[in-house]
């Protein structure tokens, strides 16, 4: 049985052993901590949603690299429940710099695990076959998904890059001797045309081939068993059929996600009805397939709307019977006076964000206990 309660009470959520669940995690050799996280996220999503922030522990508005600091904690007293990192610097630079980045992120992931938080990983993958970085740049970028798939000209190079990722996954061993689980979200927003892996530059068949190879090589060849795999287009779909157009199959995806800024105030445009419909689609798919769903990226840059958190985001999340494990807003830049998506002390939306934080539906890191065990409680 499972007992959900107001997050300010400390009633136990009793979870059955993972073996009794019907949830369809794709890695049958997943570590016990990864399996427990997966099952706990599924149960949490029935009554609550976790709040996440990209690069929350690495830097924030006007600061960087400070121990146990996040802009979210500065406002609420708690770190976000979900912390986003990125594998963007795991390729396309010197081995020395790659190793430095791996060590930096290793501490981040282990610290988050030991606090009881959750790490999700995006991958702004620098084009392995051309200049241009991860964005598509006309006249510079190459349509490289066809080149890195099995039998492609850059396939061996791709395998070496995945080996770097696997080495990192094997390195995040905490003080308890366990590997920290991570939600790995490769090739996000693939239905757009701004990344080199976007729909405009990649056939459906090539996208699926690369995705399937990525999962099987990491999991079955390189022995990575602490990943939960997230499938995350942008918001360019209006039906289940459109959402699943590039779906690689039930054996290759753990979590259905969506990135959506356009319906939440970007350029002053709000379309909550469209957002509700799309979130309902991914939630329903996850329920049907006994997998996870999450709102993998959203936010309003600079948060000029002082009640955005409760009047826009929270109302949208609670408007339907959704089962979403988490919602993640994008990063707070160190230097930019306008590029931020979570409030910091003095920002205009702070009072509303505190109301958002205090709502029993929303969970932050301090609300969780034993998320990696099969007896999990809300503090």
TrEMBL record:
<dbReference type="InterPro" id="IPR022790">
    <property type="entry name" value="GH26_dom"/>
</dbReference>
<dbReference type="Pfam" id="PF02156">
    <property type="entry name" value="Glyco_hydro_26"/>
</dbReference>
<feature type="signal peptide">
    <location>
        <begin position="1"/>
        <end position="24"/>
    </location>
</feature>
<feature type="active site" description="Nucleophile">
    <location>
        <position position="297"/>
    </location>
</feature>
<protein>
    <recommendedName>
        <fullName>Mannan endo-1,4-beta-mannosidase</fullName>
        <ecNumber>3.2.1.78</ecNumber>
    </recommendedName>
</protein>
<keyword id="KW-0964">Secreted</keyword>
<dbReference type="InterPro" id="IPR000805">
    <property type="entry name" value="Glyco_hydro_26"/>
</dbReference>
<comment type="similarity">
    <text>Belongs to the glycosyl hydrolase 26 family.</text>
</comment>
<feature type="domain" description="GH26">
    <location>
        <begin position="32"/>
        <end position="366"/>
    </location>
</feature>
<keyword id="KW-0119">Carbohydrate metabolism</keyword>
<keyword id="KW-0732">Signal</keyword>
<feature type="active site" description="Proton donor">
    <location>
        <position position="189"/>
    </location>
</feature>
<dbReference type="InterPro" id="IPR016714">
    <property type="entry name" value="MANB/E"/>
</dbReference>
<keyword id="KW-0378">Hydrolase</keyword>
<dbReference type="InterPro" id="IPR017853">
    <property type="entry name" value="GH"/>
</dbReference>
<keyword id="KW-0326">Glycosidase</keyword>
């Amino acid at each position: 049985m499972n007992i959900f309660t107001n997050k300010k009470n400390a009633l136990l959520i009793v979870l059955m052993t993972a073996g009794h669940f019907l949830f369809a995690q794709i890695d049958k050799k997943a570590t016990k901590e990864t399996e427990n996280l997966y099952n706990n996220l599924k149960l949490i999503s029935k009554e609550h949603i976790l709040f996440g922030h990209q690069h929350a522990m690495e830097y924030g508005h006007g600061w960087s690299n400070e121990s146990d600091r996040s802009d979210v904690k500065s406002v609420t007293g708690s770190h976000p429940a979900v912390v986003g990192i990125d594998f963007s610097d795991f390729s396309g630079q010197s081995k020395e710099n790659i190793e430095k980045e791996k060590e930096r992120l290793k501490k981040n992931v282990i610290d988050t695990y030991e606090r009881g938080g959750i790490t999700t990983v995006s991958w702004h993958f620098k084009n392995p076959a051309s200049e241009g970085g991860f964005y598509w740049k006309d006249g510079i970028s190459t349509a490289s998904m066809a080149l890195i798939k099995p039998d492609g000209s850059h396939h061996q190079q791709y395998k070496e890059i995945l080996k770097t990722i696997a080495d990192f996954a094997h390195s995040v061993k905490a003080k308890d001797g366990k590997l920290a689980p991570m939600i790995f979200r490769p090739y996000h927003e693939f239905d757009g045309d701004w990344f080199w892996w976007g729909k405009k530059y990649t056939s459906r068949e090539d996208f699926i081939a690369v995705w399937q190879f990525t999962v099987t090589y990491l999991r079955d060849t390189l022995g990575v068993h602490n990943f939960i795999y997230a499938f995350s287009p942008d918001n360019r779909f209006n039906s289940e059929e459109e959402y699943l157009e590039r779906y690689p199959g039930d054996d290759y995806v753990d979590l259905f996600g969506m990135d959506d800024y356009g319906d939440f105030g970007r350029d002053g445009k709000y379309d909550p009805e469209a957002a509700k419909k799309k979130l309902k689609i991914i939630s329903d798919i996850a329920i049907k397939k006994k997998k996870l769903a999450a709102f993998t990226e959203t936010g309003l840059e600079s948060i000029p709307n002082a009640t955005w958190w409760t009047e826009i985001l929270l109302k949208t999340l609670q408007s339907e019977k959704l089962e979403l494990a988490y919602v993640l807003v994008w990063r707070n830049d160190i230097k930019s006076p306008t590029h931020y998506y979570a409030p910091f002390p003095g920002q205009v939306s702070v009072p509303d964000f505190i109301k958002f934080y205090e709502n029993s539906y929303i969970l932050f890191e301090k609300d969780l206990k034993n998320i990696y065990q099969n007896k999990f409680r809300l503090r």
